[in-house]
Every structure is written in structure tokens, then in C-alpha cells.
Design a protein that fits this description.
Elements (H helix, E strand, L loop, with lengths): L1 H20 L1 H8 L5 H20 L7 H21 L5 H8 L2 H12 L6 H18 L3 H6 L1 H20 L5 H16 L15 H23 L4 H7 L2 H14 L5 H18 L2
């Protein structure tokens, strides 16, 4: 039963990574019509309504954990969305994947978790794979400070989920996280283009429902059974999915080293999750 639960958790996290990876091309297209903060705000509002509907009003114990998760996720969202104004979908997905290395370190010192040898090896080799994916545009990789900050925010978010999710309602925790993120956006909103045009309403609904609602629910569900280090490595597939979507739907080009990076990431994940 334990193995079965672990496999279900792995499937949930991989599916979550797929949904997250699908956002890069969508957001890249949206930022020509909406400001980055407006995009993030609308995503949060949609998710907040949905989580409130299925989970109800959260008790006081959810406020502090949800707020912490909301702060770090908001930092990740804002910096990633701003970064997409000046970098490719592939490069953004790759640099964001730096949280594969950061998460085990943060988990060790914040949650007092031991870093298993195979997690350490998997994290390092996984990040090498991510670097190989990015070798077609090193100038953007090392110049995109916003996306590096994003990776730090996402790593901290994964660690906070590991810290608090075990004995809490996912929906109530996610409501506090989502409404916190929406509130953080308000001082920076561009109210002149906040209205939902038919030109991009479906994209916003996709991001709010499929990603902020479904993908994050799957993340928290998976992290009830999977530690933060392994979860972050599985989320490394987000960069792979972003890459594949960029290739097949946006027309971005990969070389031999890029595809080698994909194989290394897949091998790293298999090495860590196999019994």
C-alpha cells in the first residue's frame, strides 16, 4: 500500500510538472497584452475562488503556513513572468529548474531533513541536464536575474509545502496561499488593462484553473508522500515539458546537447525514484 501511495504521488507530481511546463508559452504570449503583475493577479483570483468553493473558509491555523507559501510562490511567479519579457520559453523553464539544486539544501537547513546520497546525486545530475538544455543561449541563462530569483522562490515554496502539508487540508491551505498572492499583487496592478478581453480570457482561465488550481492541488497531494528533494527533481520535468512545448508549438530549435540534457534529467529522476 505504501508503494502504491508513492506511485500515485509520483504520477501527481509529474502531471503537475506537465501543467506547469505548459505555462511558459502561454505566459510568453500573454505578456504582449497584459502586464506581468496583472497576469499573476488574475491567476490567483481564479484559484482563490475555486479553492474557497471546494474547501470552505480556513481555520486560523492555516493562515501562517498559507501566508508563507504565498509569499515565496508570489516571488517566484512575479520574477518568472517578468523574466519571460526578455528570455525564451525554453530558457525560462531551464533557469527556473535551478530549484532542483536549491531545494535539498533549503530542506536540510530549514526542515532538518537529511539529504540522501541518491537525492544529492540526482539533483546535481538533473541540473547538469538542465544546463545542457540551455547551452543554445548561455547569454540569457546567466543574465536573467529575475528567473534565478524565481528559482529561489519556488525552492522555498516546495520546502514550505513539505513543512506544513502533511496534516492540513490542501484546499484550505491553497486558498490562503492564493488569496495572499492576489493581495500582494494589488499595489503593483496596472488597472488600465486589468479587464478581461476576449482576446486572452481563455488563456487566463487556463492559467487560473488548470495551473493555479489543478497543478498546485496535485503538487500538495503528491508532497504528502514525497519529500521535497525528490519532489523538486520530479518538477525538473517542468523544464523538459516547457522545452518540448517550445519545440513543437513555438518553433524553437534544439541541438544534440539539448536532447542529451533531456535524457540526463529523465535518468536522474529514474535513479532517485526507483526502489
Amino acid at each position: 500500500m505504501i508503494l502504491k501511495n508513492k506511485n500515485i504521488a509520483i504520477i501527481a507530481l509529474v502531471t503537475s510538472a506537465l501543467l506547469f511546463g505548459s505555462t511558459f508559452a502561454v505566459v510568453k504570449d500573454l505578456i504582449s497584452s497584459l502586464s506581468p503583475v496583472n497576469i499573476v493577479f488574475l491567476r490567483y483570483v481564479i484559484a482563490s475562488i475555486l479553492f474557497l468553493f471546494i474547501g470552505g473558509i480556513p481555520e486560523k491555523k492555516y493562515l501562517f503556513p498559507g501566508l508563507l507559501m504565498g509569499i515565496f510562490l508570489w516571488i517566484g511567479y512575479i520574477t518568472q513572468t517578468i523574466g519571460l519579457e526578455t528570455t525564451s520559453t525554453i530558457n525560462s523553464g531551464v533557469v527556473t529548474g535551478f530549484y532542483i539544486v536549491l531545494t535539498p539544501i533549503f530542506s536540510k537547513y530549514i526542515n532538518k531533513k537529511t539529504i540522501k546520497r541518491k537525492n544529492l546525486i540526482g539533483s546535481i545530475s538533473g541540473f547538469i541536464g538542465i544546463l545542457l538544455i540551455a547551452l543554445n543561449d548561455l547569454d540569457q541563462l546567466f543574465g536573467n536575474l529575475f528567473t534565478l530569483i524565481c528559482a529561489t522562490g519556488y525552492a522555498m515554496h516546495i520546502v514550505m509545502v513539505e513543512r506544513y502539508v502533511k496534516d492540513m487540508s490542501i484546499s484550505k491551505l491553497m486558498f490562503v496561499q492564493s488569496i495572499s498572492g492576489a493581495i500582494f499583487c494589488i499595489p503593483f496592478l496596472n488597472f488600465s488593462n486589468l479587464g478581461l478581453s476576449t482576446n486572452f480570457i481563455y488563456q487566463i482561465i487556463f492559467l487560473g484553473f488548470v495551473v493555479n488550481f489543478c497543478a498546485f492541488y496535485l503538487q500538495l497531494f503528491g508532497q504528502k508522500s514525497i519529500n521535497a528533494s525528490t519532489a523538486s527533481l520530479l518538477f525538473g520535468l517542468e523544464g523538459v515539458f516547457a522545452l518540448l512545448i517550445g519545440v513543437f508549438f513555438v518553433g524553437e530549435i534544439l541541438n544534440f546537447l539539448n536532447w542529451t540534457g533531456v535524457l540526463i534529467i529523465l535518468f536522474s529522476i529514474f535513479y532517485v525514484i526507483k526502489e
